[in-house]
Amino acid sequence: MDAPNPKRPCLVPLGTSSIENPCSLPIAPDFNQSNIDLTISSFLSLSDLPLFSLPLSIGCSFDRVLDNVIPSIAGTSRDEFDQDRFLDRTLQLASLLYKSTKRCIRKRATLQNSTSWPLLPELTIKVFSMLDTKSLMQASACCTMFNKCAMDRVCYSHIDLTTAAEDVDNGVVCVMIHRAGKELRSLKLGSISSSAEPTTSLLTRSCLTPLTFNHGFTGGHLRSLHLYHLRMIDCGSLSPVLSACLNLTDLKIVGLISGSRDNPLEQLGLLTRNCRLIEHLFIEIYGAAGLITDSSLLEFAANCPNLSSISLLGFLLNDAILQKLIKGFRRLKHINLSSSPEISGCFFRGLELCGKDSPLETLILRDCYILKESEVLLFLNSLLAGDFKYIRLIDVSNVDGLVCDGGNRTFEPRFPIEELKKQRSNVTFVAIFESQSSLSSSSSGEVYSDGTSSWTSNYNSAEEEHDNDLDSV
What we know:
Region (Disordered): 436-473
Structural class: alpha/beta
Largest sheet: 11 strands, mixed
Organism: Arabidopsis suecica
GO biological process, one term: SCF-dependent proteasomal ubiquitin-dependent protein catabolic process
InterPro entries: F-box-like_dom_sf, LRR_dom_sf
Oligomer: single chain
CATH class of the domain at 158-430: Alpha Beta
Protein name: F-box-like domain superfamily
């Protein structure tokens, strides 16, 4: 093929628009579209020749042509500019050829998939709707046909961006919510890892604002919202969003920021004011929350009449407030009050009257610093007496042990394990105690696990079963 004439005017300017839109290339007066197609066809017909190394290879021809053309441009007042422009023009043409080839490959892949893919588009969309968000994105990048199916709103009913938390920003969340539209049912954001630092997340407190667009149209269809370690997430930023989520039944927030003067239940009252359908609530707060009042407790209970699962981690709940809280929610099946520094266990005594008919299935009081051995023993005796007949899991594990007589701490509490095993064989009781001075050594304590020798597997299965129940909401 003849070398290009450097004196011939360029067919396109140096702007990048010609690369993005090949059809916008201007055509020389004496050179029509058929001539261009014929020239390109002749060039591509050289593909049977060797690409490199040999004297007749295409690569060597490129080198020779460029080496001959560049010197011929010299000798003018603008030789450097013209040489650079010629090389840029060559790169533009190479880029056009590369992009056209990629488009051709995608078209062929789409045609191949459309003829060989066994499922109809409707069934393909159904399958894609069952994928997690990360797998859906990977499938959509395979070909045009898969991408078209993956754009259906149903595929974004359950958005989970926790597996790629480091790469997700507010823009990604906005696009996902927009794609889901009225089909959005669940949304998970942030990093689930307990070691995650909120400052490393790209998401800010405004990432949920798209739920309020169009008078909360999308947020009104949401059923489940899980937020993990988002930056500066507090009640002030969440309240407007949750006000648009009137049909929310499952709310989980890990890392809610609370000030030292804030009433935590009053904050929860603000969050749940318009979410009267909530059944599952999980809140873990950062910071030292303020005191809790009876009025805030009553408001919170009135806002969530259907609550069946509550997890309040790090809250300053005392026994009196906790007793009122449990009695205020008659449908509670799962209670997790781990890391509550003011719970001693006295609230057990006030539950005796409603114990027989209580629907309580899970009670977790892990790492409650002042939890007393005597109060736990009293609760276990009530189990032996036939109370709380639906309970299946109890966890009173504590790295600091339990408070015993005289204000001392014990790592070997005296619990009626054998009696529980005989009379309540369907109950899993977890009581792991480990002193801070021997964290790396073997722990002491008593554990009962429904006829098994390993408490870990049985306990985890119970926790996972509860989490799966929440995820299926």
